[in-house]
Write a structure and sequence with these properties.
alpha+beta, Pnp Oxidase, Chain A, Elongation Factor Tu (Ef-tu), domain 3, Rossmann fold, 8-stranded antiparallel beta sheet, 13 helices
Length: 719
């Protein structure tokens, strides 16, 4: 057998799969799941449907998408498989539907069987075999199932229409059509390749023909400008049946249904695929876009004999279960505009309001912070917020890790009470306000990677880990790929164990426990006497190589296959790092976060890009320097000799009675940025990008002068 001709995919589909790096895996997968016959479960599925979507092509070569409905008021099934390669359909097209003219012997069509209530769907590529007055039969070329992504749940019932069906053709969208499209959360798209109207039943390439597919998103995911629809393409099954047809034959037929009133909006037109759209970086979940230019349209008013209703909580209030979990992770054009606005204002302070305060443990409290204007800044799981508050008539800055997912509508910070600022936060109530700067930081996780994730945390170091876990689990819904997660968390006792119940709930959500999608191991250094090891916690004391090796082996993670993340106090960080290096984990596989400037000593110089002009490993620190400091108005505050024992410029200033603004003390938040009037500074740690002629005081030190003279550094503090 010629393996190329046996492929279930045509040239256009292969091109896209190759472009996106999934060609080989999809070929193997497609040969298993794309069949030339209907399995028994598909035959049973089609037999019980009350409606069916069908793609077809008119004599001028324009594709259309239509719907066929049960002719019975009790909505009994109207299809029957006569064998595994033939389907008999006992109904006729709706009044005014061009399907009536396009349904001819030998023509190729596509079928989408979908049950919106259960979100189950299957697809067929077929040829019309026999036509009767109220029935027709099809021969099957291809049959395959589809996953339930982006399908909104709706219940169906019979609806007797009060008006006679009418048809209205048009070439420009009217206000009613625009309103329906802009509020749509569901539509259907038909496309084709080859010559589907060839008047013969001879065997042809079964990968050529018509396709019909479902598309879903939140209301507002389609934009209309001058009869052009702009549509995001979200992660799917990687078949690329629709887009593969588009790049070979850029035409589409679209079907929008007014589910309640029974009207159908049919469009046909030309298509352009946009691989690098300007809005892609701001549009949640969009991987590419395509635009549709209207050629011709039809309104079929009062044509549907059935009505769909979403699950309602109360009048006009729909349950969150109406929208699929995948849909809830997608964006809209309005949200994309908001995301762009937020990105442009990333360095500005944002006012947020406390909308909830939740006790996580004896010493940790979470604050939910919602912006008064705009939305939250997009962030990566593990990054932190910079907070500004007025405490005792003095402005204070601190940083706290965001402990929720970027898909939420608010920030959550989880704060351990151990100082003036944290005590202030613990006392805040709903309605209180703070100012924040966009999340940032170099400690974050990439969900797209494939290596197993091992998270190691102590105390409040669990905060970035809970964010990472939530993000990974949500991304698994969006992409259908989950990185296996093992969390090893240590706390003093059960009372100080934060997120214990939340993690139990997340494990339950995944449907797995040990050896599953998410596993959580708890260690307590001073457990309460009434707790039992093995049921209430997993190990006593600090993590050691024996314990670590045990749980890594149980999860089938090796030193070479895992990616490790550490967060906690300095002594925990160093001991955990040495523990990992001791069992053979490569230094680049260990990602670290700690509080303040990291004291972590690596046995290998970190590699990778730096966002400063000077690579930390190459920074040349002066042996001595003269440092002068002035305020915002130019008044000199300090002139002092600096030596390496003085530490960073921030430490030098603090030791001489100055109080510059700062937050993270690790070169990440940018809060301590000051103007560098004269001289040069160097950095021994990686920092965030800084403005020209500026210095981050918390990690900057005077740089050695090229002429070996004593350098002079002049710093001006901000207002």
């Amino acid at each position: 057998m010629n393996t190329e001709t046996a492929s279930p995919f045509h040239q256009g589909e292969k091109k896209i799969q190759q472009r996106l790096g999934v060609r080989q895996s999809m070929e193997q997968f497609g040969r298993k799941v794309i069949r030339d016959h209907m399995p028994q479960q598909h035959q049973d599925f089609y037999a019980q449907l009350a409606y069916l979507f069908i793609g077809h092509v008119d004599a001028q070569g324009w594709p259309w998408a239509s719907i066929l409905c049960s002719p019975d008021e009790d909505l009994k099934g109207f299809m029957r498989a006569t064998n595994n390669k033939s389907l008999l359909i006992n109904t006729q097209p709706l009044p005014g539907d061009p399907l009536k003219e396009n349904l001819q012997h030998g023509h190729k069509v596509a079928l989408l069987g979908i049950d919106l209530a259960s979100r189950r769907r299957n697809r067929l590529a077929a040829r019309v075999n026999h036509i009767e007055q109220n029935a027709f039969s099809l021969n099957i070329d291809q049959a395959f199932g589809n996953c339930p992504q982006y399908i909104q749940s709706r219940q169906v019932k019979f609806a007797a229409r009060q008006q006679q069906p009418t048809r209205q053709a048009f070439t420009q969208l009217d206000s009613q059509a625009i309103a329906l499209i802009e509020q749509a959360d569901t539509f259907f798209v038909s496309s084709y390749i080859g010559n589907p109207n060839k008047q013969t039943v001879e065997e042809t390439d079964k990968t050529h023909g018509v396709d019909i597919s479902h598309r879903g998103g939140l209301p507002g995911f389609i934009k209309i400008e001058n009869d052009v629809l702009s549509i995001p393409d979200f992660p799917g099954n990687n078949h690329f049946n629709t887009l593969g047809n588009f790049i070979e034959n850029p035409k589409a037929g679209l079907l929008f249904a007014d589910f309640k009133r029974g009207h159908l909006l049919m469009l046909t037109g030309s298509v352009t695929v946009h691989w690098d759209h300007a809005e892609q970086q701001h549009f949640d979940s969009a991987e590419r876009f395509w635009s549709f230019q209207l050629h011709q349209g039809l309104w079929l008013y009062d044509s549907l004999p059935i009505q769909w209703q979403p699950e309602e909580l109360s009048a006009n209030t729909f349950s969150a279960n109406t929208f699929s979990a995948n849909t809830m992770l997608t964006g809209t054009w309005e949200k994309a505009r908001q995301n762009k606005t937020m990105a442009d204002a990333r360095d500005a302070w944002q006012t947020v309001e406390v909308i909830d305060s939740v006790k996580e443990s004896e010493v940790v409290r979470s604050l939910h912070l919602k912006p008064l204007a705009g939305g939250i800044h997009r962030f990566k799981a593990g990054q932190f917020l910079t907070l500004s508050a007025e405490i005792d008539q003095s402005k204070s800055l601190r940083t706290y890790t965001v402990s929720n997912s970027t898909h939420d509508e608010f920030y959550r910070i989880s704060v351990k009470r151990d100082g003036v600022f944290s005590t202030y936060l613990h006392q805040l109530k709903s309605g209180d306000q703070l100012k924040v700067k966009a999340p940032r930081g170099e400690f974050f996780i990439e969900p797209a990677k494939t290596e197993p994730v091992v998270l190691m945390a102590a105390g409040i170091g669990i905060t970035p880990m809970i964010s990472m876990i939530r993000q990974l689990l949500l991304e698994a819904i969006r992409t259908r790929h989950l990185r296996p997660i093992l969390l090893l968390a240590t706390a003093r006792n059960a009372k100080q164990r934060a997120f214990y119940q939340e993690l139990k709930a997340l494990i339950k959500t995944t449907g797995k426990g040990a050896n599953g999608m998410l596993r959580v191991i708890w260690g307590l250094t001073q457990p309460e006497n009434n707790l039992a090891q093995g049921s209430d916690y997993d190990f006593k004391g600090r993590l050691n190589s024996e314990i670590l090796n045990q749980f890594l082996a149980e999860e089938e993670v090796t030193a070479q296959t895992g990616e490790f993340y550490l967060c906690g106090p300095a002594d925990f960080m160093q001991s955990s790092y040495e523990l990992l290096r001791g069992i053979g984990v490569p230094d680049p596989s260990i990602n670290c976060e700690s509080f303040g400037i990291s004291a972590l000593k690596r046995d290998t110089v970190p590699t990778g890009p730096t966002e400063l002009n000077t690579t930390p490993a190459q920074a040349s620190i002066a042996e001595s320097a003269i440092v002068t400091v002035s305020d915002h108005d130019g008044n000199q505050l300090l002139e002092q000799q600096w030596q390496p024992a003085d530490g960073t410029l921030l430490e030098l200033f603090e030791n001489h009675g100055l109080s510059p603004q700062y937050a993270c003390r690790s070169g990440q938040c940018g809060s301590c940025q000051a103007t560098l009037v004269a001289g040069e500074v160097a950095y021994e740690v990686k920092t965030t990008a800084i403005e020209k002629d500026s210095a981050l005081l918390c990690c900057a030190k005077p740089k050695a002068a090229a002429d070996e003279k004593m350098p002079v550094i002049n710093i001006q503090l901000p207002a």
